[in-house]
Amino acid sequence: MRPASMREIITHTGGFGYGLGTSDDVEKAYNASGYLAAPSADDAIARIAELPLASQPGLHWRYSASVDIQGYIIERLSGRKLGDFHAGADLRAAPHE
After folding, report:
1. Is the pTM of this model over 0.90?
2. DSSP-assigned states of every residue in the chain
């Protein structure tokens, strides 16, 4: 399988599982990995990288670890913790002209 694109990660079509349930083998693997309780974002992402995808990226919508991956990407690109990034970001809607 090819890697997921940013668009697929943002739209939950990256093929990832989440692990909040145990409805199928992929969900069981994500749940058993403990990535949601990982001590750091680096550790969580390392665990996710070892897990199987539920489907080829781009094929199916599936609520997933994509939200965690997005947060990690923001931290890496901004050089700041996600909470600090949000605290300093102007998240107001742009005025309409």
Report:
1. no
2. -PPPPHHHHHTT-S-----SS-SSHHHHHHHHHTGGG-SSHHHHHHHHHTSPPSS-TTS-----THHHHHHHHHHHHHSS-HHHHHHHS--SPPPP-
